[in-house]
Hints:
The protein is α/β, with parallel strands linked by helices and 168 residues long.
Amino acid sequence: MRTLVFTAEIDNRHGVGIVSSRIGLSSPALLFNPQTSLFGLLEKEHRAQPVDCVLIDECQFLTREQVSELSDVVDQLDIPVLCYGLRTDFRGELFSGSHYLLAWADKLIELKTVCHCGRKANCVLRLDAQGNPVHEGKQVVIGGNESYVSVCRKHYKIALGLTRKESE
């Protein structure tokens, strides 16, 4: 089967045009940026040689228009599209791509991560060079495992000093 793999142009941690897993698997990938017309590119590829599946890594970096285009790939070209990425940033805010994927996806499957306490990790902390949580900054800063850590909501709030004091 012919699967086209895409990743965000801004994410070059593992090399340009490479999707890599934490267990060491990797694949070459086509690049997208906010100006990429995914429907146009996929329609052209599909006419040249049928595409059986599309895999998008780092889908949080998609634009609203690109998510709409991917829904057209599914509906008009009849090609399944699988998207992988983060739901929220280190501030707990939705990424634009995630926002529209959550709204328009046919099916959502959450891949669970575990906090150091054993609870479901549904938040991401950004760490500075000394390992301290960062409270503000640009939404997108590309970094590896040393820059981000997945934690549960409780430990996210504790790390950022967002816990409420108990009433006396």
